[in-house]
Amino acid sequence: MASAASVTSLADEVNCPICQGTLREPVTIDCGHNFCRGCLTRYCEIPGPDPEEALTCPLCKEPFRPGNFRPNWQLASVVENIERLKLVSPPGSDEEDVCQEHGEKIYFFCEDDEAQLCVVCREAWEHRAHTVRFLEDAAGPYREQIQKCLECLRKEREEIQRIQSRENERIQVLLCQVATKRQKVIFEFAHLCQFLEEQQSILLAQLEKLDGDILKQQDDFDVLVSEELCRFSNLISELEEKNRRPARELLTDIRSTLIRCETRKCRKPEAVSPELGQRIRDFPQQAIPLQREMKMFLEKLCFELDYEPADISLDPQTSHPKLLLSEDQRRAQFSYKWQNSPDNPQRFDRATCVLAHGGFTEGRHTWLVKVDLAHGGSCTVGVVSEDVARKGELRLRPEEGVWAVRLAWGFVSALGSFPTRLALGEQPRQVRVSLDYEVGWVTFVNAVSQEPIYTFTASFTQKVFPFFGLWGRGSSFSVSS
């Protein structure tokens, strides 16, 4: 049987020069070259630059007559036989299955030399002491090793794909965080620009008033000085005239003239009054609010960029039955009517409290609590440890895993080992709660005035949850980032 290489070589000899494929219905033209009938017909139909010019062979450029196609039946038979040989020759039955040295079919594999051997090679002196096996027998263990490698590689690929998916999700989260920080920077700087423009207008107006007051006092000073100069000039002129007169006229009323001149006191006017001078010296004090606002702005901006806004929602599985939660689980209202809530280990049964979903085991997080105590009552906000008591009495202090402050009508208390009433500039109605898990800080700030309320220092060892307590008819709170 012809080898695959010889079949391929013959197939190359019966290719059409136009389509480069095997000849189909081969025809011969005047010069003796062969082409597919269809290829040559289409070639003849292509219009040339000169319609009267004779067609030329695509290979040798010899003229030929379009209608003078001669079928080459012998060549067609050769093409058919070659196609049949190509179908009969199985894959792999090429020269690679034959020993290049002896021309015999390869049956064996030498484990020591990793060489494929024919019968003659097998009997050669250099392979007699080696481990030689049939090809399929030798391939079996290697197939098993390949299968094990494939399993390991597939597992590693799956792990990489999981890492890729996880990191892509993390990248999206980071992109969202960057977008949030960008919006915060834009908002805070816009607020700062507005404040600076207002402060600039105020300071410039005050400087303008100082300018006006200085110019007014300058005018008053000029008038007073002119009057004094005029009076003294008149007295000087009178005395000079008196001094030029004869003795009899000079002595006339001399004493009254001298007394009038000597008792004339010179008023020493001031161009700028002490009060105006003090106002000018005190002007830098007008920039103190600006300095204070800039300090607060920088602190707030650093804080906003350092802490991640927490997406807080309330967990109905932990809510006391007297708390009414909104559908979006971001607002709670106190009610004396008990809700039909199934009992479970997570639910508070005596303390009218609720926890947020999720919890934290690392990082810096912040959230906003808006409190409505228009009808009295109290609201407690903070964080609690995961194992905080859900059943029975709940002592709100750090020793029990609670770090919180209580807002009541008219006062705020830090719930430490002993509750401490705090002296604040104003009653907060929006509280910013911030958690630094690694450092162990729980910070409360008036979200409107940026006045610090209280900071707890702790050492967290387990998951902590945002914590909310509520008491009093109509009292409510809502959470946001």
TrEMBL record:
UniProt domain B box-type: residue ranges: 94-135
Annotated compartments: Cytoplasm
Coiled-coil region: 143-170
Residue ranges occupied by any B30.2/SPRY domain in the UniProt entry: 292-481
Gene Ontology terms: cellular component: cytoplasm
Record keywords: Coiled coil, Cytoplasm, Metal-binding, Zinc, Zinc-finger
SMART domains (alphabetical): BBOX, PRY, RING, SPRY
Single annotated GO MF: zinc ion binding
Main location: cytoplasm
Domain of life assignment: Eukaryota
Domain RING-type: 16-61
Entries under SUPFAM superfamilies matching the protein: B-box zinc-binding domain (SSF57845), Concanavalin A-like lectins/glucanases (SSF49899), RING/U-box (SSF57850)
InterPro entries membership: B30.2/SPRY, B30.2/SPRY_sf, Butyrophylin_SPRY, ConA-like_dom_sf, PRY, SPRY_dom, TRIM/RBCC, TRIM10_RING-HC
UniProt entry tagged with the keyword Protease: no
An individual GO BP term: innate immune response
Entry's family note: Belongs to the TRIM/RBCC family.
Complexes and interactors: Interacts with IFNAR1; this interaction prevents association of IFNAR1 with TYK2.
Name of the protein described by the UniProt record: Tripartite motif-containing protein 10
Species this chain originates from: Leptonychotes weddellii
